[in-house]
């Protein structure tokens, strides 16, 4: 069992530095070595965009979006006017693309965002980490097709492969099934509530009022079919 601080991204003592600046659980790091080599054998330069992200970093992203200092996007990746949103609408709009601090799968050291570095380096446009870049015609389409065929046999799955009314589609997001399922089962609603109460997070009142819905809709994913 991990501590509440580890589950909510406030302690990384259970992780190792897999690559410079990228921290993972040891078992996940080993699995990523195998995946990286397997992808390389198919001409894909699979590299991490991000891996472990601590609670403080997620909190900074969240607060900046709440203030309108970072864009809030709709399900089609289009910027929204936050002045036209109620606090509850703003809450769920942010959650579509950004995890609640304390509840991000990136806190666990089990999840990564990945891309095809060589393909992106040869891409004439600025890389934005959006679904279109993983669709046909995008620089990471070959990677997306390869992940569809190979992620599961290498111990990973894609928790946000399809939009089901919670988090938007993220074809770049990989999760180590065994380790992530363990973390998800240990992160209780009570642990998350205590974390939110302790954070200097904007929108705290509306977050806490909607926390059960957030917990079951955005965090406790049914991963059996993925």
Automatic annotation (TrEMBL):
<dbReference type="InterPro" id="IPR052179">
    <property type="entry name" value="DD-CPase-like"/>
</dbReference>
<dbReference type="InterPro" id="IPR009045">
    <property type="entry name" value="Zn_M74/Hedgehog-like"/>
</dbReference>
<feature type="domain" description="D-alanyl-D-alanine carboxypeptidase-like core">
    <location>
        <begin position="22"/>
        <end position="176"/>
    </location>
</feature>
<dbReference type="InterPro" id="IPR003709">
    <property type="entry name" value="VanY-like_core_dom"/>
</dbReference>
<protein>
    <submittedName>
        <fullName>M15 family metallopeptidase</fullName>
    </submittedName>
</protein>
<dbReference type="Pfam" id="PF02557">
    <property type="entry name" value="VanY"/>
</dbReference>
